[in-house]
Model the fold of this input.
Amino acid sequence: MGLPTPHAVRDPIERASRDELAALQLERMRWSIAHAYANVAHYRAKLDGAGLRPEDLRSLADLARFPFTSKEDLRATYPFGMFAVPLREVVRVHASSGTTGKPTVVGYTRRDLDTWSEVMARSIFAAGGRDSDVFHNALGYGLFTGGLGYHYGAERLGMTVVPAAAGQSERQIQLLMDFGATVITSTPSYLLALAEEFDRQGIDARSTRLRLALLGAEPWTNQMRHEIEERFALSAIDTYGLSEVIGPGVACECAESKDGAHVWEDHFYPEVIDPETGAVLPDGALGELVFTSLTKEAMPVIRYRTRDLTRLLPGTARPAMRRIEKIAGRSDDMLILRGVNVFPSQIEECLLKQPRLAPHYQLELWRDERHLDQLDVLVEMKPQFAAAEQTVRDAAAHELQHHVKSMVGVTVRVKLVPCGAIERSFGKAKRVADRRPK
Ligand code: DLL
Done:
C-alpha cells in the first residue's frame, strides 16, 4: 500500500524526517523538564524523590525513568500549584469540570496561546480547512478549551469565524444556512442532534454548503463518522486533545488519509504505557496514552497520564508524526460486565449497524437480585420506523442484542424508548448511567 500523496502543509516541520524531529524533541524535552524542575515545587519534589535530575535525560528513551503526572496531582495542587511562571505572566486559564470534586485548572502564557493557535491552525489546515472557508464553531465557549481553542486557530488561519457556541439548535440551523458555513466544529453527538433539528425544520441537511466537519472531545466510532458523513454529505475528521496538554490541537487527522489523528510531536511527546505496570509499550501496542509537553511555559506536563486507551501507529500523510488509533475509550469509562471488559464505543459500533435504530443511545448499569451487574442499552427507533409494528420493533431490538453478544461477548437488554427520550447533549455526551447502589 503506497502512502497518500501529501497535500500542502502549513509548517515545514510537518515534512521533517523522523531524525530531524527526534533531535528537536530531545532539545525541547530537556528544556521542558529543566523548566518544570526549576519552577514547580511539585515536579522538583517528585524528581528528587526518584533520585533524578533534569540532566539525567540524555536521550528520548531516558524519559521512561521519569515519574508520571496524573489528574490527582493537578487536584492536589489546585488551583495554580502546577504553574511554572508567576501569575502575572499567565494570560488565560481554562478548567475542566471534574465529575467529582474540584475542577482541574490549566494556564497559558501569551506564547502558549500563540503555540495553541498555531497547532490549531495546523490541525484545521491538515483537515482541509482554508482561509476562504466560513467556519461555524458550535463547541462550548468558556472554561472548556474546545470553543476558544478552535476560535483562535481558525482566526489564525484567516477563516471567517462564526462563534455560534453550543446550544440553541434552532438558531444554529438559521446561522448555518444564512451565513453559508463550509466548515463546522462540534462534538460528534451534537452534530447528530443538529441533523435532527434539520429534519424537524424540514430542511435537507445535505443541502447546506458544509463540506467539512472537525469533530472530537468525546469517543466516536468510524460507524458514527459514516452516519454523519451520509447525513450531511461532508467529510468528517477526528480531532483530539485534552486541557492538561493544551486543549484541542494535540492531534488531528489529515484530509488525504483520514486514518487516525497525527500527533503534533514537535510540541507534544506521546508514549503508550501499560496502565497496570507503567511500562512503556512498543508502538502498535494498545495501552494508555501519556504526554510530555515540549514547549509549554505556564504549565508544563511531564508524562501526563490521559487515561485514554489507544495505540501509536507510524505516520502516513505526515511521515514523521505518529498517529493514534481512534480512542477506544477512557480507562474510567470501561465497564466490567460479569468479567468482560466493555467500552461504550463497542456497543455504538453494533448499534449503528442496525438500519432501523437511531444513533442516540445511553447505557444503564444496574444490579440484579443475584447481585450481578446488568447492562441495558436504551435506544430509539429512527423516526421513520417509530410507528412500526411491535414485531418489527422486537426484531430490531433482538438483532442488536444478538450482535452485541456475538461481537462483544456480553448479554445486554435492549430497551426501545420513544423518539427524543435520550437526552441530546450540546457538548460531551454522557453515555453511561450507573444505577447500581453506591
Ligand atoms: O475535549 C479538548 C477537545 C475539544 C478536543 C474539542 C477535541 C475537540 P477536555 O475537556 O480536557 O478537552 O477532555 C479531554 O476528551 O482525554 C479524551 O478522553 C476525550 N477526547 C477528546 N478528543 C477525543 C477524540 C477536550 N477525538 C478528553 N476521541 C480526552 C475520543 C476524545 N476522545
